[in-house]
Amino acid sequence: MHPNRMIVPQLLTAMCAAALMAGCANLDAPTNQAMAEQAMEGKAVPEHWVASARVAAFDPAWAGFPEHGTLQALIDEALANNLDLRVAASRVQQAAQQARLAGADLLPTVGFGARTATDPTPGSAFSANGYAILINWEIDLWGRARAEKRAGEAGYRSTEADYAYARQSIGALTAKSWLAALEATGQLALAQELESTTGEQLELVQYRRRIGKVSELDVAYWAQQREAAADVVAQREQARMQALRALELLLGRYPEGAAQANEAIPDTPPPLAPGLPLDLLDRRPDLIAARERMVSAYFGAEEAKAARLPAISIFAGAGRFTKDYSGLATSMQSWVYPVGASLIWPLFDAGRRQITLELRTEQQREALASYARAILTAMGEVENGLTGEQQLALRERAIQRQYSESTRALELAEVQRQIGQFDTFDVLQRKRDVLRVKGDLLHVRAERLVQRVNLHLALGGKFSVVDVPSE
């Protein structure tokens, strides 16, 4: 035989084998580190947080509030009754079923069939009957079914992480709503006290007007001040009711504004010790969800790649076949055992499989970009949270000094009034100053605690034990 005639078949065989191997699905998922590096390619990530010189392992436990206090009970109630969480829990169950469905192609299918037929020719008495059990199994030679299964599993894990993040977000939102209700209650009490103090000043001015020491202009001014104080009371009451109703909605209650928020605002807990930026990727559920969606998109593309190759199936069965003839005394019966294989290789499908592969590839690029965006957003939230903590701490110290000085001025005014060097009106004015600064201090303390909740959530902290609904 001519040597060239032997080379051509060998070359064709090698080319077909290379094409088949190139189309096989890669069933090794990229590592978390590789995905993070690919997502953050071209972006400089510092080893430590820019806004914090501290380097320590972050403790994802409670943000610093009492673990068994009112707030924890409210968070537990919100997690049990919140309707958004019920929606998220249902999505977890749907994803679990999708993952199970995606792995069904790896197992054989078993079916039962039966058939009966008669000859419609007049005078004929022929009939045939049969039944069989058939087993069919598509051999996952190229990894298509396994890639589909792993894509479904990654999709389930991403939904699990979304559910965990939803729980943490509801916990954080409950904490912030509770703090807003506490502040609104405290501000209402201060506004009422300020209204009372302004009313006392108006009475003193009216008395001075009667004895001719002040003019009617002074009376009108302080009457206006009292009405302004009454308006502030109405505003604070409205803010309190809105805060209580927002809290009740989170708790799954009817929003009637009947929730109790009469406690003092807690003290600010010690500073959080954040870890390294990459620690965030394994701690925040929303980043885990974005990463798993990237894995799912990766295996989706691998599935589409393998779907272009031939599908090979084998089948086997066992059955019984019976024929009856009117001219025969007995029936003809036999057992049949069909065994075989099939190969289907799509040669032309109007580009459907290639388009599917290109679509899955673009979805993979989208998932990568979304993961990178989620990482940068998370890091921005942490940096803003750390900076906010520092600035709010400075503000609180400054306002605390104002409060101390205004309180000291009030005490000195009381002493001078007792020895006749200060009148009651001026003492009440000092009291008004104290109440205003006290309101500012209450606000900055509440704002600092809200900032702590935001930072704790940004760092991947937990507000309760995160569980996943059982299947």
UniProtKB/TrEMBL annotation:
Family classification: Belongs to the outer membrane factor (OMF) (TC 1.B.17) family.
Domain of life: Bacteria
Segment forming the signal sequence: 1-27
Pfam families listed in its UniProt record: OEP
Gene3D superfamilies per record: Outer membrane efflux proteins (OEP)
Heme among keywords: no
Protein name: Outer membrane protein OprM
GO terms for MF: efflux transmembrane transporter activity
Keywords annotated in UniProt: Signal
